[in-house]
């Protein structure tokens, strides 16, 4: 480890490793990169504990385009990230996403979102109740007024595979990784200068990238800055199904999608099992080390909704559960990617609120462009920059799960 690096990235999970990969892959950047990760096992990283999905069904064009680039990266991942003959397979399942609307308000949101998605070239269709029933005959659809289904470009994949692929390729391209914890960030006027580590090392930094996930606010405060990001707990359950409906669909070779019920409960196939979760009724900030699952959510919220939606989900049994953390942006539940307007060599890549895995490729590319060119070159992410935090102006996105 050197005493000075052109770029120091705080956090080495999927966001930090995507930044490191895109920077070191950029032919117009020839600087040094250090990634600092406090837990190289990544056991409690949001990346490792996520539901691992990617979708284009958003209401804002930026979020649609961010996921479209993510889909391209996932498609070509094995070839692009190959290191010494090792071609990482993300095991992508193109199951699609299925949103169900039961109220007029929900249906109107799906229609408005669909217009945005179509304008971006997304392969998404709206279905009537009858069309939904024909596609997925296991569902009870009496209350459904409209459905939105992604025919391609959506699905789920190996979450840690994405992170480790970025990490391995970044290291092969010259990025250095160190296991340590940032305990201080010094400033001289309007510039961060030095990152102090728990080991006692002091690293001079040309640019600091905050990719600390749920701990983003903690890292920002070390530099005398603020970001409204806090850890929020989400519990995922894996269940077995006495009579699995997987294979019963009349579309997509019988594969079932990730279904977002009108109640907010979601469910998707997970091998021979199913993965499910729901938005919590109460959603307070939690301690950074609180990973105790909310066991009662399955019995009280999830199972009743699933059993109502399909007779196949009446006889189900939990076989596993775990809790992970959203890096939750309390302003608007959307990512913050960009420079601090005054401390301009401090860059935020935070607040993904559950979408970090699918948004990591475009975030890494965008941050690399900010550093190499002092501006975005491919997709303009200015609307999700830090300025809206200062102004208190939310970035509107209606399709938040």
Automatic annotation (TrEMBL):
Q: Name one GO cellular component term.
A: cytoplasm
Q: Show where the FAD dependent oxidoreductase domain sits.
A: 6-370
Q: Does this UniProt record's set of keywords contain Magnesium? A: no
Question: GO molecular function, one example?
Answer: oxidoreductase activity
Q: Which UniProt keywords apply?
A: Oxidoreductase
Family annotation (PANTHER family): FAD-DEPENDENT OXIDOREDUCTASE DOMAIN-CONTAINING PROTEIN 1 (PTHR13847:SF287), SARCOSINE DEHYDROGENASE-RELATED (PTHR13847)
Instruction: Spell out the protein name for this chain.
Output: FAD-binding oxidoreductase
Q: Which species?
A: Antarcticimicrobium luteum
Highest classification ranks of the organism: Bacteria, Pseudomonadati, Pseudomonadota, Alphaproteobacteria, Rhodobacterales
